[in-house]
Amino acid sequence: QSYCHRLQHDMYFLTSTSRLNEQVVDKIVLQLNRVYPQILTNEEAEKFRNPKASLHTRLSDLLKHLQKKGDRHCQEFYRALQINAEQLFNDLPSRKILKTPDPTEIDTDKEQYMLNERGPVFFLACFSVAAGLALFWYCCNSGELLRETQVVGRARRILGFSPIIIGRHVRNICLLYLEDMSRN
């Protein structure tokens, strides 16, 4: 949504009574006059700061003027509003629409937390179980090959280098099982 459309949507909210006081409007006008690139010329800034006109009229004229100038000018108005009246900026109707989550959208922060809440120990435990099942499946499906000393020797070398992946006790049990299988 463009800033001009957002400003048109927020116009009634901003111009309603007691939302913005004269000091805040003057600060916004001065900021728009002083910011680079200059949004308001000196003459326009004096016109929108004229104390003879009512605040409602000046603010309405300012918002209409910015909408005619384009999206960049409206964006700078929102920036000035955020700097000078942050609470009002956060309460804008267009901001509430932007903050409203889409019910079909996945909240990635929540999803990331749900996936990572168990930590690395849980991951290592699952990995160890998967590696153990893969080894067991390999051993069961290659019964004839296990009887050969060459395969047992390879398995022994692999298990010998794996005290980090699986515990020392599990490794010893697997080695005893392989030796028993090779004897039979």
From TrEMBL:
Question: What does the UniProt keyword field contain?
Answer: Disulfide bond, Endoplasmic reticulum, Membrane, Mitochondrion, Transmembrane, Transmembrane helix
**What parts of the sequence cross the membrane?**
120-138
**Where does this protein reside within or beyond the cell?**
Endoplasmic reticulum membrane; Mitochondrion membrane
Specify the species. Answer: Pomatorhinus ruficollis (streak-breasted scimitar babbler)
BP GO terms, sorted: regulation of apoptotic process
Q: What is this protein called?
A: Caspase recruitment domain-containing protein 19
InterPro entries, sorted: CARD, CARD19, CARD_BinCARD, DEATH-like_dom_sf
Query: Which Gene Ontology cellular component annotation is one that this UniProt entry carries?
Result: mitochondrial membrane
The protein's assembly and partners: Associates with BCL10 by CARD-CARD interaction.
What PROSITE patterns does this protein's entry cite?
CARD
The organism's place on the tree of life at top rank = Eukaryota
Is Disulfide bond one of the keywords UniProt gives this record? yes
Topology relative to the membrane, per the entry? Single-pass membrane protein
CARD domain ranges (all copies): 38-96
Q: Does the keyword Transmembrane apply?
A: yes
